[in-house]
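quick one, two chains, predict together pls
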Amino acid sequence: MGSAYVPGLKVTASTVLRLERRLPLKGEVVVNAGDAVRWDQVVAHTHLPGSVEMINVAARLGLEPAEVPECMLKTRGQQVTKGEGLARNKGFFGLFKATLQAPLSGTLESVSGVSGQVVLRGPAVPVQVHAYVDGVIERVIPEEGVVVRTHGAHLQGIFGIGGETAGEVVLATGDPGREMQVSDLEQTHAGKVVVGGALVTRQVLDRAVEIGVRALVVGGIHDQDLRDFLGYDLGVAITGSEDKGLTLVLTEGFGPIPMARRTFELLAANAGRRASVSGATQIRAGVIRPEILIPHLDEPEPRAAEGPQAGEGFVPGAWVRVIREPHFGHLARVLALPVEPVEIPTGARARVAEIELVDGPRWIVPRANLELIEE
Amino acid sequence: MDKDAIRSILATDCGSTTTKAILIEKRGDEFRLAVRGEAPTTVEAPAEDVTRGVLNAVAEVAELVGRPLLDDQGNLIQPFDGTRGVDLYLSTSSAGGGLQMMVAGVVRQMTAQSAERAALGAGAIVMDVLSSNDRRRPHEKIERIRQLRPDMVLLSGGVDGGTQKHVVELAQLIGAADPRPRLGTSLRLPVIYAGNREAREQVQAVLGERTALEVVENLRPSLEEENLQPARLKIQHQFLEHVMAQAPGYPRLMAMVDEPIMPTPAAVGLIMQRVARERGISLVGVDIGGATTDVFSVFGGAFNRTVSANYGMSYSISNVLADAGLEDVFRWVPFDLPEGELRNRIKNKMIRPTSIPYLVEELMIEQALAREALRLSFDQHRLLATGLKGVQRQSDIASMFDQGASGHSLVDLMSLDLLIGSGGVLSHAPRRAQAAMMLMDAFLPEGVTRLAVDSIFMMPQLGVLAEVHPEAATQVFEKDCLVELGTCVAPAGPARPGRRVLSGRIGQTGFTLDQGQLQLLPLGPGEVARAVLVPERGLDVGAGRGQVLECEVHGGEVGLILDGRGRRPFTLPPEKAARLRALAEWNQALDLYPIGPVGNPLVGVPDRLAGEVTGG
């Protein structure tokens, strides 16, 4: 059988990170290998093809489609300015000619004598890729992007919304189990990455946006509050493009769940440092989890953390988080891993782990319902 | 290799998350499943080579069967020499999200729908259907094409000799979008043109330079005729040449296999069609996964497949709730739960898709959602599995891919002979009766219908095997793949609560069934009984209203289920207490869950069931 454990979320105090920063299309890379970069620095840029307008010239000028090519005032590939004459019909015995004006500036891309349509393409749209994190350019991928190398703390959340941002880490509470209140937020949190406790509500989110908080990191949220905040219900977990003025990272899940103490303590230890945060989540093939990266460029690079470390998987003594009822969200230590499947209350037979919860009791839990806490 | 010399067959299915390998071997005169193995799929980073996962799964198979299948270099040993290797290796694939297509046709209900059926039948996920009359403005369609980045586009439109204008316009839209394929940033997007043959030159002029254009026969040569096979074969060919060839490790996998790799759903479609043809039956099959639900049907020889890309049990589970609505999900749940808590639980399942229900209460919620996911997917299937719209029926419909000409759904639940379920929530339900009940509640089969589940989801491998060695595929399908659950007997037609709806005999034993009742009669796997079914006036059990039906009924792991809960209409008691009572009675009749007696609300039960243990 394939192993059924859920790979854990990273909560690492010090590691080396390599981030690939790629353009959506080929373009130009504007930094060199070895350059030191800031999170908001442009490393590569390109132009996406402009928006396209199809114009039914035949219908607009009362022509047969086959007549359209000879009635065009511009040729294929020529630039057109908005309001400029694009095509003109022959009129009535050469009189009463009507001219069709270009609805936008751009390039005349095609003219069809079959459909009577022409295609105008607007100006190209510039696209920039930023470094996203403070670090050094390790490698340039010609025409496509770069690899930024940095080192520091790396934390993954379970779910998030909103794109990449960065700001100074501040704590809004000293208690990872506390549900966030509107009063926990202050004007000084503007432009910062604010760490809360167990739960964030719609009111707190609204207040954070109002103040100008860049990112919020909390344990959980009620789904209903998220729905109200977004204005729609998330059908599938593919996020990152939301434009709500705030990036949100949940470290535990939906509902009021205290932030895991290790996560909270690591964030607390990094208060005052600049964090790069992304809410982008994709829970399908090629899993993407939201993340918090906190460079420690003032410290030497850790030696043992060259590249990603393969997790050892479940072993007795490993720390795990329960990710399903009962005891959802609780931390525990693995005591034993029986080989044979065990019948659980649903009647299903599952491969299980025997665990000891932090507050004492021992349980048998399907391994599929445990998440490794990886360092 | 000579077909008769084949004794050992290895087949893999590379899914998005798991690669499953099965080994089929000849024992005496028949082929049987020997062992199966699985390993995580390795298309994504860090491995980025699908063959790693394949070889891991094969290594597990080798270990279980106790003989080497791979040499020291990790190559497959062929042929089987009695102690090492296999004779034949085949594979299907849906890794990396499968084959994602956009289709376009002139009229939504005609050529565009035919194109959609062609793409679905070839195993694709249809991301969007563009048509000249879909009410979107040209720039909106162009934006959409750009945004979706499909693997391939199928363009159809116009009957042969008909107007060219609209299909050329569609080609211009695609050209203007200048779409990029999802995989391989510098490649041209494969586009297949299967429209009006007179417009080929124009389409070539518009798309020839910008895309990897291929032209095949018109999939709708006339209004009365649908010819999907050339487009389907081309889609599968392009899938291998352009899409698969770009996916990490696939060139190597393509060199390993003895037959072309097939998209997983296309292979499932093949085995379904074969079974329907060989047994002379109509059937419906469903595969409910984490992200999508596929429905297949064969009625009157016409095969249809649909994929509901947003209904599934983990990644897409929130969509099921959103589209079905809270009330329809809750109607199957035999206890109370605050809405907010249900929402949180469903979202937590979405973000941690591999977790499994531990408490009975959670199992019930998941199975309630499964019923709705299946029902919604089946509704979508019925809408697409129709006859050709707006034309007179032709008398010589011979091809199995042809649709009837009525414009009505081809799905007829009264004539349905076999309903097959697969996917974790059905195949791995802790009790087989739960799978039977989910299928019954979601599909509402009428009259006499056999129910089955695919034991370990090996239909994809058997589908591709059926192309090479049909006998082997059929033997394994019958003996090892299908788990017969039994037969459902459900009279259709209106009846008052508590009134008699059906009576008769099963073998020598008489029975009566009242409206609202569910009964389970023992009839084990392999057992067949003669049934005399006497519906009450106005009700139909397969022979017509009020007509007696004499037939054979087949047993299974669950048995013979007499379902008096109603069809056309099927309703649950609207009042909550009555609904909970009815659910509890039905649960008890089929011994669905390990829970309390009838009438006992299940609130609080989970705590008592929670399996706390002490000590090591």
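Confidence is low (pLDDT under 50) at residues 392-405, 596-616 of chain B.
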